[in-house]
Request: fold
Amino acid sequence: MKHLKHLLAALVFISLIIFTNCGGGGGGEENDEFAEQAEKLVTTWTLNANGAVNAGVQSEWDGLTLTFTGDGNGGSYSTNVSTLTALSSEAPTVWPASGTWEFGDSGTDIDFITRSDDVDVTIKEVTDSVLELSFNISSSGARVHAINGDWTFSFSN
Reply:
């Protein structure tokens, strides 16, 4: 009987150790990846000279700034699109003045973000000093036809 009590106590102890080390919190490494990617992304970025491309360099975007805030769970962004006088009225369709973002596919892919206007933006490169983003705009209507297509923006800070 004494051995049975010791065996039972040992089984309870081993079970506690096993269940304590399982599950909980999950994805520590993955969460770290999102936090690290967000840490690089979250700052104010300035468009490089000739940094906006849609079937050719478009200099009217010169002076564009893009500011990200947030963390590995997403956040918000803002631009100075409304102050760039050379841009057409359709420019906010390409880069809205502000919105929210989250890592793509509901927070499971650090290689792209989804903006609140449902545009998926590929993060082609992000370092402490370089950000390159690309996305596709496919709006309907004759007025916005000029903005449809693939866009690439190269920023630095």
